[in-house]
Design goal:
The protein is α+β, with helices and mostly antiparallel strands. The chain starts with 9 loop residues before the first strand and ends in a 21-residue tail after the last helix. It contains 6 helices and 18 strands. The structure holds fe (ii) ion (FE2).
């Protein structure tokens, strides 16, 4: 916020880069099982899209020694908004540098969040035009629904781990102009375990959640949207039939009301197939705060989340001696 005036410079989460040590297998997971479309390949990277994504390539898979998250790219509403946000990032001391932009995008400013996750701001976006074989009969749909695999519609959000949640949450609010949606606060509100934020009506586009292993710049999960809950159930069948490890779900969370399914793609990253949830339109939305009691297990109904959900993130770290007061939470 700037005074009481919301900042509306960031339009939405534009693209996410995932690192994978098993690029061929990860590509199989996203293309053949989740049903995404490959639009470009360059060097050690493959660019993919869901059938409903308007952007050319909102997911970039990059070969790397370890899994994890690469650049998290935010599109601004205009060139002027881009300049304003870059100035804000630099004023916050997190400045980086300008580059020519990734595939399908114009000039891009690269920086980090306080935790050290790589982020980008850009405005110019080349509109996706489907080749004839992928052209939809629906004039308002960017690409034909292929019916392949899960058939995810679009990217939705990601959850990042952080050693200092409030610092990153404040960065999201004050520098990028995000709206705070929900929080988990334990110890009479003193310990901020996780915060969920968005720049759009989508419930959340990013979460910063406490890294219980004290790692650096790690990814908890990346999430893709399907239109209804039956699609999530069908995704569980498709993933299981193909030997993919399902860690949790299908079940429903209490915060965000999400209907979720978490699996590990072959490179090791936790991927969520996601539906349900709710949209938020109120400009003066009051963030919802959950404490130990009303948070419970983080599951509204369904099986409790396994301990791996708390412990595992990418890149993975060996189990440390757990701090005795590490709270149980759900990075959803
Ligand atoms: Fe999620």
């Amino acid at each position: 916020m700037s005074g009481n005036e919301p900042i509306r410079d960031v339009a939405h989460l534009g693209a996410v880069e995932l690192f994978t040590p098993k690029p061929d297998e990860s590509l199989w997971y996203f293309r053949d099982l989740l049903g995404m479309e490959v639009v470009h390949q360059s060097g050690g990277s493959v660019y993919l899209r869901g059938y409903g994504d308007y952007a050319k390539a909102p997911l970039k898979l990059t070969e790397a020694a370890k899994p994890g998250v690469g650049a998290i790219s935010w599109r601004t509403i205009s060139e002027q908004a881009l300049e304003r946000r870059v100035a804000a990032v630099e004023a916050a001391g997190l400045g980086g540098s300008w580059g020519n932009g990734d595939y399908g995008r114009g000039r891009t400013y690269r920086f980090t969040d306080p935790e050290g996750h790589a982020m980008e701001l850009y405005y110019e976006e080349e509109r996706y035009v489907a080749p004839p074989a992928l052209r939809s009969a629906l004039k308002n749909q960017p690409m034909k629904f292929s019916g392949r695999g899960v058939g995810v519609r679009r990217i939705d959000h990601l959850a990042l781990l952080a050693r200092d949640v409030p610092k990153n949450r404040e960065f999201g609010q004050n520098v990028l102009g995000m709206q705070l949606r929900e929080q988990i606060r334990f110890n009479n509100g003193e310990t901020e375990i996780g915060s969920w934020l968005s720049t759009t009506a989508v419930h959340h586009e990013v979460a910063w959640v406490l890294d219980v292993k004290g790692g650096t710049g790690r990814l908890h999960h990346f999430s893709l949207w399907v239109d209804n809950r039956e699609d999530v159930l069908r995704a569980a069948d498709i993933l299981r039939e193909n030997g993919i490890f399902i860690e949790a779900g299908p079940s429903k969370h209490n915060n965000s009301q999400a209907f979720y399914l978490y699996s590990y793609e072959p490179g090791g990253n936790r991927i969520e197939v996601y539906s349900g949830s709710f949209l938020i339109f109120a400009p003066d939305f009051e963030p919802v705060v959950w404490n130990e009691q009303d948070r419970g297990t983080g599951v509204y109904w369904g099986a409790p989340l396994p301990s791996s959900f708390l412990q595992y993130a990418t890149p993975d770290l060996p189990d440390p001696p757990a701090e005795p007061d590490v709270p149980v939470f759900d990075p959803r």
